[in-house]
Amino acid sequence: MYIDTHTHLFSKQFNADRAETIQRALDMGVTTLLLPNIDEESLPRMLECAKDFPACKPMIGVHPCSINANYQSELNMVARELDRGGYIAVGEIGLDYYWDITFKEEQKEAFRQQILWAKQHHLPIAIHTRNSFEDAFEIVASLNDADLKGVFHCFSGTMEDAEKIMSLGGFYMGIGGVLTFKNGGIDGPVREIPLEYLVLETDAPYLAPVPHRGKRNESAYLPIIAERLAAIKQVGLESIAQQTSLNAQKLFNL
Length: 254
Fold this sequence. Notes:
Largest sheet: 5 strands, parallel
Order of helices and strands: EHEHEHEHEHEHEHEHH
Strand order of the largest sheet: 4-5-6-7-8
Number of helices: 9
C-alpha cells in the first residue's frame, strides 16, 4: 500500500482521463491520494475531485504563487473553508522565490496566517519552499509548538536542511520524482535521513520520475519513486511502502 501525499489530480491536465488516471493509481497499490489546493480558482475542481473519488482527500490553502496584492481575498476563502470543515491539512502553503519576488512580504504574511489557522484547527501543513527554504524554515520554527506538524513538500535540500526539519519534532520530508533524476542531487541526504521522517509524493502532473521525465506525471508512478528509495536505503520495497504509509497516516490522521 502506498499513499501519495501530494498530487494535483484536479489539474486541468487530467480533464480528459481523470477517472482512468485514478484507477491506474489504485491498480498500482496507491490507495490514498492527498490533494493540496492552489487558490480560489482551483477550489471547485479540487472539491469535485474529492467528492467523485473516495481515495482523494482534500487540503485547503493558497499556493505562494497565487499570492498577490489582493491576497487577503484568497485568505478569506481559506478561513471560510476551514470553518466549513472536511479538510485533512492546510496546504499547499509556503514561499516561492523562483518565479517572482514582487510579493515576497505578502507571501510571508499569508504563510504565517495559514500556519496559525492550521494550529487553531489542529491540522498539519503542506509546505512549498522553492528557492526559499531558509525564510520558510525561519517562519515555521518561530511558530512551532506541540500543536504544529507538517511536511516540507518536494524536499531537495542538504543534510543540514534535513537536520533542521527533523529538529522541529513533528515534520516530515516529501520525496518525489527528483529522487530518480540523474543529477537530482538528493541521493546523499536521503540516504542519511531516517525513513521515519520521509513520505512519498508525486506532485502530479509535475516532476514525473524517470523513465517518464518530461511527460505528464501521475500517481500511478509513485512505486517508481519507492523503488528508487528502496535502492538508496538498501532495504526491501515492502519496508518503504509500510513505513512511508505509516508516516503519512500519522501526519494526516488518516
